[in-house]
Amino acid sequence: MPKSENHLKQGPDETLDIHLGGKWQLGRDNLSIRDVNLFLEQHPGTRRIIFNCKNLDAWDSSILTFLLSLIRIASRKNIQVEKDELPSGIQQLITLATAVPQKEDAKKSVPEPGFFETVGADTIRFVHSIGELMEFIGGAFLAVIKLFVRKPRFRSQDFWQFLMDAGARAVPIVSLISFLVGLILAFVGIMQLKLFGAQIFVADLVGIAMVRQMGAIMTGIIMAGRTGAAFASQLGTMQVNEEIDAFKTLAISPMEFLVLPRMLALTLMMPFLVLYADLMGVLGGALVAVGIFDISLPMYLTRTIEVVGLNDLFIGLFMGVVFGILISLSGCMRGIQCERSASAVGDAATSAVVTGIVAIIIATSVITILCDIIGI
After folding, report:
1. Which of 139, 174, 284, 329 is the most exposed place for a label (fewest CB within 10 A)?
2. CA 83 to chain centre
3. Contacts of 368 (CB under 8 A, 6+ apart)
4. Phi first, then psi: what are they for 157, rounded to 5°?
5. What distance in Å separates the CA atoms of residue 219 and residue 321, rounded to the nearest whole number?
C-alpha cells in the first residue's frame, strides 16, 4: 500500500487530521502509533483528532489495534477524538472494546458486622456443625450394623490397602516418636528422683505413663496428622471431582463404600500400634537409665514388669481403639464436607487434624475421669 494513502496532517484549530486509505491489513506498510506519538510531540498544542477514511478500501483487526492505542494516548493527553468519520463497523468494534459495564453494587458499601451479629452467626454455624456431626456419626453407626447383617459393600482390596497404610507404613514414625517420648520422660523423671536417691523408680514413671496413656496419646496424635489428614484429602479430592455424587447416583452408599473400610482399618490397627509404642517408650526409658545413670537392664525391666499391670495395658489399648474411631470419623467427615475447590482440600485436611487432636484430648480426659471413678 502506498505510504501517501495514510498520513498525518495538521489541520486548523489545533486539529490532527489522520488520513486512512487503501487496504489496511496485517503485513502492509501502515501508519504506526509511533508516528502519531512523534507528530503529537512536534505539535504539542493539538487538542482534537479527526479521521478521513474516504479512500479506505479494506481493513482487518490491525486498524482496530491502531485506533485503540491512539484513543488511549489521546485520553492521557486530554485530546478529543472524533470517530464520526470512521466506518460504522469500526465504530461499533471500538464501542464494544472500550465499554466497561458498571457493576451493579459498585457503589454499595458493605457494613461491618456488629458484635451480636458475629456471635449469632458463629452460634448458628456451631449448631449446624453439631447437627452434621450427629448425622455423620449416625450414618457410620448404621454402616457398622449393616456390616454384620449382610455382605459389606466395599472392596476387600481397598480394605487391605487401608490396613497397610494405617499399620505397617506408620511403624517408622511411631517408633521414632514413642522412643523419644520414653527417653524424655526418663531423663526428666530421673533428674528429680536422684535428689532422693530413688533413680530406680524411673521404671515406674516411664512404664505406667507410656502403657497407660502416653503411648496411646502420642500414637493417636501421630495418626491424626498422618492418616486422618490422608483420609480427608482423599475424600475431599473425590468430592471436588464429583466422584461421591457419582456413587450416590449409582445407589452406592459413600458411608459403606468409602468411610467404613477406612474406619475399620484404622480402628483395628490402633491397638497394635499402641502396644508397639509402649514397647518403644519403655526401651527409650531403659536407654537413659542404663546408659547414663548406670541402672542395670535386668533391674529396670524387672521393676517395669512389677509396676505395670494388666489394667494399665487394657486402658491404653482401649484408648487406642477409641482414638482410631475418632480419628477415622474426623478425617472422613471433613473430607466429605469439603467444598468444591482445590484450596478446600487443604482446608479439609487441616480441619481433620485439628478435629482429631481435639477429640483425642477430650476422650483422654473423659476416660481418665471414668477410670478414677471406677478405681482402676
Report:
1. 139
2. 52
3. 213
4. -65, -30
5. 11
pLDDT, tens only, 252-274: 888 888 888 999 999 999 999 99
Question: With the CA atoms of 37, 40, 44 and 48 taken in that order, what torsion angle do they form, in degrees rounded to the nearest 10?
Answer: -130
> With left for phi above 0 and alpha for psi between -120 and 50, is residue 17 left, alpha or beta?
beta
* Dist. CA 363–CA 369, nearest whole Å: 10
Domains and CATH numbers, the chain: 3-98 (3.30.750.24), 124-374 (no CATH)
Across 197-221, b (16+ Cβ under 10 Å) vs e yields eebbebbbbbbbbbbbbbbbbbbbb
Task: Count Cα neighbours of 286 within 13 Å in the Cβ-side half-sphere.
Answer: 17
Mean pLDDT of the chain: 83
Confidence label for 2 from pLDDT (cuts 50, 70 and 90)? very low
- Of 188, 192, 179, 194, give the one whose Cα is nearest residue 293: 194
- C-alpha cell belonging to residue 374: 471406677
> Which residues have C-beta within 8 Å of that of residue 71, sequence separation ≥ 6?
81, 94, 98
Name the nearest CA neighbour of 202 among 190, 217, 188, 215.
190
User: How do beta strands 7-11 and 15-19 pair?
Assistant: antiparallel
